[in-house]
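Sequence only, no structure available. Ideas?
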Amino acid sequence: MNQNQITEEAFTLLLANQNMRLIHGVLKSLHISPARSDYEDLLQEGCLLFVEAYKRFCQLHSSQEVPAAFGKFAFRTIRWRLLDLLRHQQLYHPPCEPLVTIKQDFEHLTGIEVSDPNGLAFAADLTAAAFFQELWSICLAHEQRYLNSRLLGQKISDFAKQEHVSRQTVYNWRSDVHEKARRILD
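Reply:
I predicted one. C-alpha cells follow.
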C-alpha cells in the first residue's frame, strides 16, 4: 500500500468509528477544556497527529493488527506529541498578561506616576502593546527603574545620579533591556 492510500485510509478511519472521541479524550487527559482559546487548534493538531500515528503504526505492524491495537497506540502517540507541543509553547511563548488600557491600571501595575500629557500619551502607547508588558515582566528591578526613567523622559545622567551608579552602568542596563526586547521579538 502506498503513502497516499494509507493517508486516505487514516482520514477515513479518523472520521469513522468515533475516532474524534479519541482525540477529545487525549485533550481531556491533558486537562485542555473546550473553553480554552486554542482548543480548536489543538483539536486539529490532534487530527493530524492521528494520521501520522496511523501511518507509523502501519509501517510497524501488519494490516490485520491495525483495528485491534491501534487505539492505544494512537492515544499514547497523540498525547505525547501534544504534550511536547504544549511544553514548547510554554517555554518559548509564555502567556502575555492582559493589556492595560487605562492610566490608573498602568500606574498601579508599574508604580509609574504619569502626570504630564506627553508622558501619558507615551504610556498609553506602551500599555497598548503586550510587548511592553512582557518586557516589563522579565526585567530585573534596576532594569524596570531604567524603563521607568525613560518613560518619564529622564536623562541618563540624571538617572545615574539618582541611582548612585555611573552612566556606563546605566548604558549596560539599557543594553540588557534591549537584549531582552530582542529575545521577545525573536
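Residues 33 and 149 are 43 Å apart (CA to CA).
Hope that gets you unstuck.
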